[in-house]
Amino acid sequence: MADHVVVVGGGASGVLMAAHLLRLPGRRFTVMIVEPDEDIGRGLAYGTDDPALLLNTRAGNMSAFEDDPSHFWRWLQESGRSDDVAPDGPFSFAPRLRYREYLRDLLRHWLPETGDGRLRILRDTCTGLSETARGVNAALASGTAQTAALAVLAIGHAPAVGHSPYDHAWASPDELGIRPEEDILILGTGLSMVDKVVALRLRGHRGRIIAVSRRGLLPRVHAPTRPLQLDPADIPFGTGPAYVLRWLRRTVRWAEAQGRDWRDVMDALRPHTAALWQAMPPSGRARFLRHGRTLWDIHRHRMPPELASILEESLADGFLRIEAGRLKDETSKGGRHRAVIHWRGGADETVMVDRVIHCTGLLKPIEADATGLVAELLSTGAARKDALGLGLDVSDGCALIGRAGLPSRRIHAIGPVTKARFWEITAVPDIRAQAHRLAARLAAL
Description:
- The protein has helices at 12-22, 71-78, 96-106, 173-176, 191-202, 241-257, 262-269, 273-279, 282-300, 305-316, 373-380, 419-422, 428-444, and strands at residues 4-8, 30-34, 119-122, 126-131, 136-140, 145-148, 150-153, 167-168, 184-187, 209-213, 320-333, 336-343, 348-353, 355-358, 399-401, 407-413.
- The chain is an alpha/beta fold.
- The chain has three domains: 4-160 and 364-444, FAD/NAD(P)-binding domain; 167-220 and 302-358, FAD/NAD(P)-binding domain; 232-300, no CATH class.
- It has a seven-stranded mixed β-sheet. Strands 3-2-1-7-16-15 form a six-stranded mixed β-sheet, with helices on one face.
- β12 and β13 form a beta hairpin.
- α1 crosses α13 (428-444).
């Protein structure tokens, strides 16, 4: 059992963690992924079967492995799946469903049926994790338990528990049963909204679509970049968000004067984002979430040019209306929604729609996951929330920190559940780097 690891979650985070453990030289880990979904690698991010919905990162940056950056692009070519990618090669944006297939295929090297048998996938739900004298005990919904030397929590963006009167962002129009004539109100104007509008337009939707967010801002568009080399000494670590924003604007103006693009600056900052977040005072982090998060997100999380073109057409011909405001009140009657929207500037407007779709993002209470695992970890004291409620508290080495403030020796976490410590940990390039580091740490235990 000394080299056995239980990975809780079979989405992108869990698959990447398992792959990095299993490919380590000099250490033959065995891994069990506990995941209730039949389709490994799906998660919320790659659950769509719609080929029109694209990755938000170029194919050349989506490799599972930092030391083999073209791995995903080669897989697309060698598997015959590169035909549905734009002719820009590794600079193209592949369909999301292809990445799910890639993640699933990634594991075949270690499965009993197709590889060396060091990986097992258990179709079950983990409901509890506890340390024992010899390792970790994982309680399962089936009433059984699994023991291992180590456990990694990789639950990703867990769907929220409880009923909502609104349709959630992750379901496709087909899954939601949207009729072509329906009028739709979308809450949020980020990437999830873009996906919804594109999917509806390509299906020939005829109803009106209104998208509302506090500022009415859209994600910026990807373009070719030449990232700068930022010296850590030039980055204002330890300052608040207002100072960081002023520094960022000055740096962008300097870059533009050199014939560069603002994206060059944002991409150059990426390797330093976690350190910048961790060095920011707690009060500064709270102010960033209130006032700076939207501006950061629209520049940091961009949309592919192909989707931007469809969105521009939708705005130009009236298929889509985007406004700055907030939902003030909503009532449902006879299958329709009466929504009162308070527009930025003071006026209220009442609109009648057939459907409201919630696309306002993933910053929800961390314990509100449908499995109940996080709530159980919090109640037993095996974990604690961070001060801002973004996620679970973990050490710099990704060890789960318990109620007493001590890092666990055997239970670690990876991916979006660790965003309280690392902030930018939702995209594959960030998660694969985290998986690589954590695998090396676990091998050294």
